[in-house]
Structures are given as structure tokens and as C-alpha cells.
């Protein structure tokens, strides 16, 4: 019986550590995902939409499908960056 109790207590401590690390990972995950925008195109073939590009306006990085217009995606990315920069200036946030 004592062995099972110790094993259970050890398992509980292990689960608590895993829970704590998962909560920390969620915070890191939110920070990692900040700045990303997904471009979704709707068409007759895809009435629910299809992701055709992934933009990160903070890093000015894009990943796009071959059928997506690269110039449009880059202009969109720069436009988002400019808009966010202007809003930060208005609010006084650096």
C-alpha cells in the first residue's frame, strides 16, 4: 500500500509540473503567434474558403500558395504594418 501511495503522490507532482509547463507554453505560444495573419480566398470551388497565404507583419515574412498573387500579399503585409505603426503613434505606444 505505501508503495502505491508514493507512486500516486509522485504521479500527482509530475502532473502538476506538466500542468505548470503547459500553462507557460501557452503564454509562449501566444507570443509566437502574435503578428500572424492568414489570407483566406473564397471561390465557387471553395465556398467555405481556402487559406492561400500566411503573413507575419511584424517580421515581414510571407508564405503563400503558388496560385496566390505575391504582389498583393506583400502589399497587404506592408499595409497592415503601416496601419499598426500609425495606430501606435496615435496611442503613444512604442
Automatic annotation (TrEMBL):
Database matches in InterPro entries: GRDP-like, GRDP_C
Polar residues bias spans: 9-18
Domain GRPD C-terminal, chain residue ranges per copy: 20-63
Transmembrane segments: none
Pfam family, one: GRDP_C
Record region (Disordered): 1-34
Biased composition (Acidic residues): 23-34
Name recorded for this polypeptide: GRPD C-terminal domain-containing protein
Taxonomic path: Eukaryota, Viridiplantae, Streptophyta, Embryophyta, Tracheophyta
